Amino acid sequence: MQIAKRLSPLVFAVAVVGGLSGCATTANNPKDPLEGFNRAMFAVNEGIDVVVKPVAEGYDAAAPLPVKAAIGNFFGNVSDVWTALNNLLQGKPGAALSDVGRVLVNTTVGIGGAFDIASEMGLEKHAEDFGQTMGSWGVPDGPYFYWPIIGPRTTRDTLGWGVDTYVDPVRRVDDVPLRNTLLGVRFIDTRASLLASDKVVEEAAFDKYNYIRDAYLQHRRSEIYDGNPPREKEDTN
Fold it and tell me: What phi, psi does 152 have (nearest 5°)?
């Protein structure tokens, strides 16, 4: 990715060393034992976002709403294929069948996924990835990490992200210019979709890093248990 290539290797190395040296003194959350390192990576990501965010804001302002909706629907339709397989691996064949139905309807009637006709027909959209699948199998979270570009992940979700990336149909497009264009558009479209949440975080968070970490861990736990997570052991008396 061009943005990552522009990041100075020296700056990155200093951030890593500084983060590792601070791990023993700054960690205050048992789920985040590498907090010093993660805060350094968070700072790196904030620096990268100085370039990315204005591009996303320009895209959000310039692109008509129907165009943005069509782009989001297209990539959402692509992701529904992997979601269907993950639902099947999680032992939810009904949801997997619904996802397959979504792909068939939106790819045909929805003109290649540009229009989400399936939702209008009552076929619910799901969001499942391999990290959630491993969680449903009982694989523990592992330590929390904050990575440049891809953002917050647990150890399990980092491995899951690797699998998600490997099977990503967009990354398997043979035409290199087309593939890079699709990846770039998806990246900016995704970043633009988070602009509204930026304002919420900025206004609500005294410590932005802690806010994002805790929100991420809570959200992922909810996703793994389909919105009905059991109480954690430390919460019980």
Answer: -75, 140
Contacts of 67 (CB under 8 A, 6+ apart): none
CB-based burial, 119-133: b 16+ in 10 Å, e otherwise: beeebebbebbbbbb
pLDDT digits over 197-225, tens only? 998 888 887 899 999 999 999 999 999 99
Q: Are 6 and 49 in contact (CB under 8 A)?
A: no
Residue 203 CA to residue 215 CA, distance in Å, equals 15
Say if residues 237 and 164 touch (Cβ distance below 8 Å).
no
pTM, two decimals, is: 0.83
Is residue 144 helix, strand or coil? strand
pLDDT digits (tens, 9 = 90+) for 108-122: 999 999 999 999 999
- Measure the CA–CA gap between 181 and 184, rounded to whole angstroms: 5
Kindly compute the dihedral angle of the four CA atoms of residues 29, 31, 37, 41, in this order, to the nearest 10 degrees. Answer: -110
> Quick one: which of 15, 2, 5 has its CA closest to 147?
15
